[in-house]
Amino acid sequence: MDRENGPRVPVQRAPKTGANAGTGLNPDEGGRGRADTEAQAVTPPSGLLRFAVLGPVRAWRDGEPVPTGSPQQRALLAALLLRGGRTATASELIDALWGEESPSQALAAVRTYASRLRKALGPQVLVSESGGYALRTSAAALDVATAQELGAEAEKLRAAGDRAGARDRLAEALDLWDGEVLASVPGPYAETQRTRLEEWRLTLLENRLDIDLEVGAHAEAVSELTALTAAHPLRERLRELLMLALYRSGRQAEALAVYADTRRLLADELGVDPTPELSRLQQRILQADAELARPVEEDAPAAAPVARPAQLPATVPDFTGRAPFVRELSARLATAEGHVMAVSALAGIGGVGKTTLAVHVAHEARPHFPDGQLYVDLQGAGSRAAAPETVLGSFLRALGTPDSAIPDSLDDRAALYRSTLDGRRVLVLLDNARDAAQIRPLLPGTAGCAALVTSRIRMVDLAGAHLVDLDVMSPEEALQLFTRIVGAERVRSEREAALDVVAACGFLPLAIRIAASRLAARRTWTVSVLAAKLADERRRLDELQAGDLAVKATFELGYGQLEPAQARAFRLLGLADGPDISLAAAAAVLDLPLWDTEDLLEALVDTSLLESAAPGRYRYHDLVRLYARACADRDEQPPTEKEAALSRLLDFYLSTAARVYAIERPGDRLVDHLEPTSYEGLTFTDRHGAQDWLYAEANCLLACVRQSASSPATLRRAVDLLWASLDLGESGANSREFEATGVVVRDAARSHADARAEGRALMVLAGVHHTAGRFKEADRDAELALPHADRAGDPLPACWSANARGIIALYQNRFVEGEQYLTEAIERFRHIGDEPGEASALCNLSRIHLAMGRTPSAIALARQGTEIYDSMGHALRGANGRYALGLALTQDDQLAAAAEQLREALAVFADSRQRLWEGMTLFRLSEVDIAARRHAQAAANAEMALTVLRGIGGEWRRGNVLTVLGRALFGIGQSGRALVCWQEALGIFDALGAPEAAEVRALLTPATAA
Fold it and tell me: Which phi and psi angles does 893 have, rounded to 5°?
């Protein structure tokens, strides 16, 4: 809220009037009745008054502060405000301000305070009556009343199932608190109200956190609950919520440790046992109760609507034939209701209509699966089939699971997927599967659910599956499909010619659809004209037996009717390996303006040879892509145009990625050391737009790198594209694919004996290993990169090799070596005039000096590096400088300055989607908090660090965060959870052979734990 202009009071909430007006909180049970229960609230003519007691006692008139006087005068004002307009006698006010030890002039003092307040507020606001005083203001003028109204609205919304709305209202109410209630207000009445209002705040906070857990935001809630249990150690409801949040985050041992800590604390402090609710929760956690893991109770009357995905593609309006298959599959799916899961697998050649049939049957079966239908194209016929863990992540999101609750491993995701589907009736359509191994983790496995699978192979090794082999259409069905698309009127008079057409198509549905669509779009053609065109190609079709070759022949029908420019676009665009292609990238491939390119691509969409994946993005069916490439091999003239098209695509990506890199890192010399390009890329006006492009194009960009690495002519540009896109590896969003692409490029460089390319590829991989916490591998690749770079006369990898080895030496406690590497790196960067590189090495050297106990030098080096970054407007790397400076200031016990530097860095990292550095900065802030003895805040920051670093940073970093989290928890008395964290950290460090294991063992000794 706006603390300067008074508490926020929603304008749409009219003040209450009459006998029930007031805050609605019964703030003073001992107060007398209203002096005038029928009186309407009176607003002074001088302006609108508002008051706040959920913090310091303050008043505003038309947004301007009104002086409220001395502490005793504010105590009088608070006592009147919290009576909701009821009259307070002088004796009651004396008791409120001084209790039993009132001064001899107490009555005179009360009258003086009242007189001063009347002058400040207005005579119509503070009135004298019945031997006492009362305030005549709107109930909505007091922040307590606003909070009460928001809390009531939240209850109604939650009861109606609107959890998001209820949470928003509770957050609004809690935001009205501004520090300690009735701050610096003396007297027994103020103390009583302070306790009551703080209790109410905690109740509202518990309700909001309860909603957070209901909607699956348990990982995020752990941090806040950890801090709250430290501040209110005896509040068992908070402990209960923390246990549940930890359990749902996969941290069962910590959840049980919270119970042990709570039981010990209650016994020591109060001599009592935990509440039955807390004990029952512990038992359910011990039993790994599956229902407990559900974010939302499905049968609860106030539960929010369960996500019911409806992902099935649209069924074709002219679906034809296949009646026996429809009946067979529909009957099979119907058996899933109340019985074991039903699995049906359709197999057949490409273009035979597997997907069309499966989608049609799935739509027919929707009434049997009221809890939703999931769909995915598994891309099994292509070279890069969809990974099961990726598909499970998508399915879990569709089923309402938040990202923070989705585990990393395939097995954990599959287990959560099956648990989420338990008790629900959901149909899963797995289209275009590669093999049984790909789909096994995707099967629901529970009664009431069913899976429908399509694949080019028969799933003979899929246990329990009902196998269906789909053949070509019968002549009658084929003719019926052709007629529905073309129109009965045109076919009726040329039935024989129509039979010739469908026969020439091999009775394959996809081929028939393409041919019929072309005829439907050409009103001047007759069916005989189309039949004659197909007759010229019969010999080729007769030579093709079945399978993929038959599909290729059907595509020939559509391709042969394209205009020359359309045919060229069809051939060349199919050469790119990415899953889809943007309009701008397609324009680069075709070397055409955007608008001409769009016209060609939309024409191809109209002929069903290309799909519109999303606005401005296009993709091929996997079999159509293979056919397009075959056409390019056969028809493209001159043959070098294929290589030229892919070269333009590579140039487009490299040029654009370089601009993204430059806008993120102004002054960085990498862009000056990249291979030149002949095709211009995109330009950006802000770094957010640049980031959006990079992450949207990640899969296509990395596919282009892999494809281009196979040719010596494009290898170096491929390596440079990968290096310029290093944010994809550092952010964690595409780190696995980025690493796999780096390996492909390195191997290609070795096979082509290209020292320059290999040196750069090795440095890319060194960065990947560093990000993942694999320091031995990172040091190895950085060491190998140096001789390649020197041999090739390539200075930049040589500079970064020394820099990388220096920071890795720090992590491995090889400080003297690290100092030597970083000194060399500084000299190398200075030699080529790379100031940002020099700044990076200076900041890393700062950390080496810090580890060696040379704190003043560490601070000076970090400041020097940060100043270089700042002078160049280098916000992202400037954040790295502030990170290093924050560490040095922490060790120098300049904790406030350290926290300031780290918070500035944190904001930049979060805004730049740098998850690794965001998480590590939270970790460092928790270290500052521990040094400042703010253990509750330290625990909250460490918890947030764990959440941010999920899936990135490696186990070594996770072990360090767990160690600090344990220290923080120990500091707030949660020793059981602390021990669990330290034990997990020790297991990590022992597995890695890391020296940090000794420190954690010391923490786990009985003497330390005691």
Answer: 65, 20
CB count, 10 Å around CB of 247? 23
Enter the pTM of the model: 0.61
Q: How many whole angstroms separate alpha carbon 129 and alpha carbon 792? A: 95
Strand partners, 346: 454, 468
Is the pLDDT reported for residue 495 higher than 60? yes
Query: Alpha-carbon distance 702 to 736, whole Å?
Result: 11
Amino acid at 434: R
Contact between 558 and 518 (Cβ < 8 Å): yes
DSSP-derived letter for residue 366 is: G
638: cis peptide before it, omega within 30°? yes
Q: How far apart are CA 369 and CA 578, in angstroms?
A: 35
| Burial status of residue 823 (CB atoms within 10 A of its CB: 0-12, 13-18, 19 or more) | middle
Q: Which amino acid is at 279?
A: S
Q: How many whole angstroms separate alpha carbon 444 and alpha carbon 637?
A: 51
Q: Hunting for tokens 């401005």 — which residue is that? A: 616
| Residue type, position 446, single letter | T
pLDDT in tens, 877-895: 889 999 999 999 999 999 9
Secondary structure of residue 51 in the 3-state scheme: strand
CA dihedral 738, 740, 744, 747 (to 10 degrees): 120
Q: What's the rounded Cα separation, in Å, for the pair 519 and 558? A: 11
Helix (H) or strand (E) holding 311: none
The type of residue at 347 is: A
Q: Are residues 802 and 821 in contact, defined by beta-carbon separation less than 8 angstroms?
A: yes
Q: 672: Cβ–Cβ under 8 A, 6 or more apart, which residues?
A: none
Count of Cβ atoms closer than 10 Å to residue 323 Cβ: 9
- Looking at residue 314, the DSSP 8-state letter turns out to be P
Residue type, 1: M
Tell me how crowded residue 305 is: count the other CB atoms within 10 A of its CB: 10
The 10s digit of each residue's pLDDT in 101-133 is: 888 888 888 888 888 888 888 888 888 877 788
Phi then psi dihedrals of residue 995, to 5 deg: -65, -20
For 115-173, strand residue ranges (E) read 126-129, 132-135
d(Cα 555, Cα 560) in Å, to the nearest integer? 9
Token pair in block for residue 705: 């790198």
Per-residue pLDDT reduced to its tens digit, 215-274: 878 878 888 888 888 888 888 888 888 888 888 888 888 888 888 888 888 888 888 888
What is residue 29's three-state secondary structure?
A: coil
Bridge-partner residues for 127, per DSSP? 134
Other Cβ atoms closer than 10 A to 304: 20
* Rounded CA separation 643/648 (Å): 9
CB-based burial label for 616 (10 Å; 0-12, 13-18, 19+):
middle
Contact (Cβ atoms closer than 8 angstroms) between residue 278 and residue 259: yes
Long-range contacts of 853-860 (CB under 8 A, 24+ apart): 855/888, 855/891, 855/892, 856/892, 858/887, 858/888, 858/891, 859/885, 859/888, 859/889, 859/892
Mean pLDDT of 889-903: 94
DSSP 49: E
Q: How far is the C-alpha of 668 from the C-alpha of 874, rounded, in Å?
A: 9
Distance CA 814, CA 783 (A): 15
Nearest to 401 by CA among 381, 424, 385: 424
Cα distances (Å, whole numbers) of residue 756 to 599, 705, 740? 41, 16, 20
Beta bridge partners of 89: 132
pLDDT over 60 (residue 20): no
